[in-house]
Design brief:
The structure holds two protein chains of two kinds. In chain A, the strands form two sheets. In chain A, strands 2, 4, 5, 6, 9, 10 and 11 form a seven-stranded mixed sheet that branches. Chain A is an all-beta fold. The mean pLDDT of chain A is 92. Chain A has strands at residues 3-7, 10-13, 19-26, 33-38, 44-52, 55-58, 65-70, 73-78, 87-93, 101-102, 106-110. Chain B is globular. Classes of the chains: A mainly beta, B mainly beta. The interface between A and B is medium-sized, with 26 and 23 residues.
Amino acid sequence: SQTIHQWPATLVQPVGSPLSLECTVEGTSNPNLYWYRQAAGRGLQLLFYSVGIGQISSEVPQNLSASRPQDRQFILSSKKLLLSDSGFYLCACPPPTGGYTFGSGTRLTVV
Amino acid sequence: SQQGEEDPQALSIQEGENATMNCSYKTSINNLQWYRQNSGRGLVHLILIRSNEREKHSGRLRVTLDTSKKSSSLLITASRAADTASYFCATPLAGYNKLIFGAGTRLAVHP
């Protein structure tokens, strides 16, 4: 079965600072990978998805970017964080059948 | 854009009671999935129902799907305090590698 690792679990960053969140997947190869953001008490908004190395699709215009440098690695980045970037960031991966597997998430607070 | 919308937004019940959550969606689907999220954690897949299925059971969970009404319901029977969580429905957007989530139902089960 596949497992998703996300780190860090929590992060407090000042406005204008850079960001790098990492997601790695075990137990599968050539997975589709997804970054979601969840505002407090809200549903999940799809930010990026990737079907392979170097292939990134952006869902919403924003201050963030994503990269897929390796098959099982998906990175969410920003050059300069905004207050509105605060939220709970989740990485996800669909298995061959059944529901998606999610990482444990990173809670980002921009101050 | 949101594909699924849950109803109610919040639900408060006593232990032992049943909890019913509803989900409506907008476009054709291949399947519909329900997830659970404990506060501050990642999402856990509960159950997937395919478009040609009308009802599915898993332990104390019962999911129904009515494709003519574009709706689904999740029933948790004999609820426990440990069932307290947010519950989300999600549908893969047809033809795309995307899982779209509703805003969720926050369930509180009181002992």
